[in-house]
């Protein structure tokens, strides 16, 4: 066995890399210690968002991905539900409108709504909101189904990789030599030499209330929470329903290593912020909570490219909470760089050789 | 004492227990939903801060699926017993089916309410008990207990199971030792009560170590979490006397006292019986042949056998088929789905033990001080 490329990690990013490499004729082997989408990818909401990104390299990657997903995610409950971002205080209204105006200039479909119009889109929304922007491109999919769809026809072996020199990987089942290695291990990517830290998130799931909430609805302060580098708990109201009628409630961010204990203060903060957006949720029971670890890069940009210290070792990680949304373009960019093709977006901002990334 | 029931006695005594003890505050109709360090979160929301915690949350029936099990006229044996204890007459013609000695008191209770007992079907073979002489000799009182069920013993058929129900037509099969049907006949019954063993209610301590779902405890009933003890069916199924003895030990240990020697001896003997029971009535894989492709596996999300996808983990299976994602959160179906697909059962870590309205979560105190 001597594959052209070994992809370490069968999450959404590893799967997208494997798919793009295979599409360019390379022989690809995927390794994962647990199986497809068993870590971060299945611990989120499956969001494909453009609304939460300011103009810049990450938005370019998101827009490129957004174009690719409808074909790739057709069998993965792809739903163009749209996002509704709302300001909940008078002070938050103008910054939200200015943020949306800058996004519009960068090619995003961001439609300013009056609070009354927002209520006609989401009848149970808190009528006290002060501003709203409707993002038609925001979408959602089932991340496990999407990962499996990308991995169709690609060999996967259940094995844990301990080390790699870019030309081979040492696994729990022996050494596999190959042409190149892709580190797509998400929050565990630090084991292969890049500065990625786990950033904890928790999601609450309610009993089904089909049809009550139609869009992904979130508080405009979410963007600030995502961009923060603080290790302490940050929460922001993010509410959406799934095709099964359950409502998913996020979002929390906390840096505390791989500690996965559920804390009541996180549950409280999530519940309060969800009720602030949708008062009717007060009496709706939560039947489950789940959490995961986002791969956090300190400068908030994905890491996509070859490691200058270890030729043959490529990284595709650091997508924090946006991995599902950024996956197809990440896979494509990595495959284009690895095969010497013209990249679909400027790869420079995502290079490995960044001061915050090299460790 | 935090009790989800209106009166003491749990599932077994159903309010017929006379519990009163000075120094014990009995919180009735109160559900606990989260253990966070040394805080027990209750519905309300309320918090109790503890130095020691005893988990005695019991177990619930495991039903094995078969065509028609999700339709009218099929309930768990535990539900039947609960209703019978409230004096509810459920049906005229009843069948009790599954495995384990618990079927006998359920059948007796239904018979006492005037039901016509069509049959009591035990899937395992009684000869399995012949290998368990040590456990039987140490627990002779269990044989005496059997005598109290003599009214229903004449209706007992072993190596027999209900494998389908359509209206009042019930398919009753003779099984081989792997529980594969070898022949079948039709009986008529309005109600089939099923119980294929039990699953423990361990959601409050999702990180505690366990073996075959049941909590591991040391000789003082302490779980793998210091200061958290467990007693009764959460540690294994062995009957009320074993549960009571475990409770005595857990209570003493939690209070830093030496447990009574009698209780320790009762637990030692009772565990022999519990282990023998687990072996003699172990679920055999032949039950998987009772299902058709369109037989429901998960009732909450209406997932049938043919909907179960190829997966390597429970999480992957759940997120691709929606099995175990509904109201019961896999309490009924997850174990069965794991066996049907060959996926290792991971104990289903549920971090919220009972559904709790968002308004209650929002009203939690800032810090559980």
UniProtKB/TrEMBL annotation, chain A:
UniProt keywords, alphabetically: Oxidoreductase
Protein's organism: Lentzea indica
Record-linked SUPFAM superfamilies: FAD-linked reductases, C-terminal domain (SSF54373), FAD/NAD(P)-binding domain (SSF51905)
Record-linked InterPro entries: FAD-dep_OxRdtase, FAD/NAD-bd_sf
Domain FAD dependent oxidoreductase, residue spans: 4-337
Name of the protein: FAD-binding oxidoreductase
